[in-house]
TrEMBL record:
Pfam families noted in UniProt: DUF4619
UniProt name for this protein: Uncharacterized protein
Alphabetical list of PANTHER family matching this protein: COILED-COIL DOMAIN CONTAINING 198
Length: 103
């Protein structure tokens, strides 16, 4: 027996690819967004302003993180501690509570 082979050849829109015929959903969503709201100068400026605010927030977070790391890395010496910052251990007076000892 001989095995047969079959091909499906379409003669319509030869230059159009399968991806263009059936685009992925993310491409369809992008196309819908572009069609529904054309980008205006005002909208573009608004997006740039939002991006600048996010960028400033990220920079502030990085600065705070660097400052915290600097404080944590700083070696602690006895001379660097103020007298009022020292938390001494409070030990109660030694008073035995035994019946055979009389105060």
């Amino acid at each position: 027996t001989q095995n047969g082979l079959s091909f499906d050849i379409s003669f319509e829109n030869e230059d159009e690819s399968i991806i263009r015929k059936h685009p992925p959903k993310r491409f369809q969503k992008l196309e819908d967004d572009q069609i529904s709201s054309p980008l205006s100068i005002d909208r573009l400026q608004e997006k740039l302003d939002e991006a600048e605010v996010r960028r400033q927030q990220i920079l502030q977070n990085r600065i705070q993180s660097a400052q915290l790391r600097k404080v944590l890395k700083k070696p602690l010496t006895v001379d660097s501690i103020q007298e009022d910052e020292i938390d001494y251990l409070q030990v109660p007076d030694d008073k035995p509570n035994t019946p055979f000892l009389k105060n």
